[in-house]
Design goal:
Blueprint: H1 8-29, H2 33-43, H3 45-73, H4 76-108, H5 134-140, H6 146-151, H7 155-172, H8 177-198, H9 201-216, H10 219-223, H11 225-250, H12 254-260, H13 262-271, H14 278-288, H15 292-305, H16 308-324, H17 331-344, H18 354-365, H19 374-377, H20 380-405, H21 421-429
Helix pairs in contact: 1-9, 1-13, 2-9, 3-7, 3-8, 3-9, 3-15, 4-11, 4-15, 4-16, 4-17, 4-20, 8-21, 11-16, 11-20, 13-20, 14-15, 14-20, 14-21, 15-20, 16-18, 16-20
């Protein structure tokens, strides 16, 4: 009798625990910060390689799956209708995320009586904020070259090009079937490669946790326990709201979806990267019964327009810094800030430490000391873990909801029966 293979989730959880233990041992053994940083940089090689491998495939994976999805829709009206429904959900989810963060931050008052020395107002954070303007965001949507967009992993630009390419293929009808089949095969090849990359996930998770704890130690968590605890309470509330909204549309099946996305959730959490979870989310949605032509369209859009965890963090961080410096923000000012974040947060995808850049730009707009960000930079990695995992949850639920609205969600008994072969290969590899 064949021995049942343990799921990837088990290995990721074990890797997280071992990484924390090894990191704590290294931090305790090598108290010198320079030595600890050097050790951590070598430990993190595995994580860096894993994330680079994900970045290596993500642009082609998004292009191929999205192009085929739109081509199989058959007409631009269908794609437009799905896009409008997805954007409608994204806007509502964004407003909920930002508003919830605003309400909880005002209620908890996490920055009041901080008990820590505040950075001087003029201290530089070395974060470039000029790129996050409405003009730059709109012009940045359209790639100068699809090759350049893929080379730079500009997912939003790849998304725009893929929509044009897929719509053109659909418009060709019979003449475009050969090329559609080629792009479909490319998608299956990319998912096959992803299956091999995912075998490295536990090692990457171990290295990520070990390197962070080696440099920061667990003491930094105690220092910022109040803020981190408040933020994670906010995330739990946001998860409940997202799942509740999904329940209203999908029904009790939403809990089945939550179970299916546990692996991409843990992967995004432990590596602090939403991109790392993308291939696994596609497979989980296949298993849930979402048609690939819908998931391959909505999910990439979500990665640019539906970063629920990141948006909640922006409101938490801005109000935390304002409270720490004793700056009172009237309700009207906070509402203006919320609307500004609705726009600036849409440029986050694919930008390293983008949440910090968006927050810095927002602080400048409301005359709040940008130096306050230095308070959070030490624990940003731990906070990024939570917001990356929340982004994955939000996008999975959004895709399933749009599929339900479009009649593209298979009945529960048939879910997973029509998954693409590449998805099956990925499940086997995991």
């Amino acid at each position: 009798m064949l021995k049942k293979k343990r799921p990837l989730t088990v290995y990721i959880l074990v890797a997280m625990v071992l990484g924390i233990l090894v990191g704590y041992a290294c931090h305790d053994t090598f108290p010198d910060k320079k030595i600890a940083a050097d050790i951590a940089s070598h430990i993190s090689i595995a994580t860096d390689v894993f994330l680079r491998l994900i970045k290596m495939i993500i642009a082609l994976l998004v292009f191929s799956t999205l192009t085929v999805g739109i081509a199989h829709m058959g007409d631009s009206k269908t794609a437009g209708r799905i896009g409008v429904k997805a954007l409608g959900w994204f806007v509502m989810a964004s407003l909920v995320s930002l508003t919830l963060g605003l309400v909880l931050s005002n209620y908890m008052q996490l920055g009041v009586n901080l008990g820590l020395p505040l950075p001087e107002v003029g201290t530089a954070t070395n974060l470039k904020t000029a790129a996050f303007t409405l003009k730059d965001f709109i012009t940045h949507l359209v790639p100068k070259s699809p090759i350049e967009a893929m080379a730079n992993n500009e997912i939003l630009q790849v998304l725009v090009f893929s929509i044009f390419f897929g719509a053109a293929l659909a418009g060709l009808g019979e003449h475009g079937r050969t090329l559609t089949a080629v792009v479909d095969q490319l998608a299956q090849v990319m998912l096959k490669i992803t299956g091999a990359i995912m075998a490295m996930a536990p090692l990457a998770v171990f290295a990520a946790m070990a390197s962070v704890v080696t440099t920061q130690g667990l003491g930094v968590l105690v220092t910022f326990a109040k803020f981190m605890g408040g933020f994670y309470i906010g995330l739990v509330c946001l998860w409940a709201l997202l799942i509740g909204a999904g329940f209203l549309v999908i029904g009790p099946r939403v809990f089945k979806l939550v179970g299916l996305i546990r692996e991409p959730f843990l992967l995004a959490f432990s590596t602090a990267s939403s991109e790392a979870a993308y291939p696994k989310l596609l497979v989980a949605l296949d298993q849930f019964g979402v048609q690939r032509k819908i998931s391959s369209f909505v999910l990439p859009m979500g990665y640019s327009f539906n970063l629920d965890g990141s948006m909640m963090y922006c409101t938490f961080a801005v109000l935390f810094i304002a409270q720490a410096y004793g700056i009172d923000l009237p309700v009207g000012t906070q509402i203006t800030m919320l609307l500004l974040l609705m726009l600036t947060s849409k440029g986050m995808a694919g930008v390293p430490r983008a949440s910090l850049v968006v927050i810095a730009a927002t602080l400048n707009q409301f005359n709040i000391p940008e130096a306050g960000l230095l308070l959070l930079m030490g624990v940003d990695q731990f906070l990024d873990m939570g917001r990356s995992a929340t982004n994955a949850v939000g996008n999975a639920i959004a895709t399933a909801v749009v599929a339900k609205w479009e009649g593209g969600l298979a009945p529960e008994g048939e879910a997973g029966l029509h998954s693409v072969p590449a998805g099956e290969e990925l499940r086997k590899a995991a």
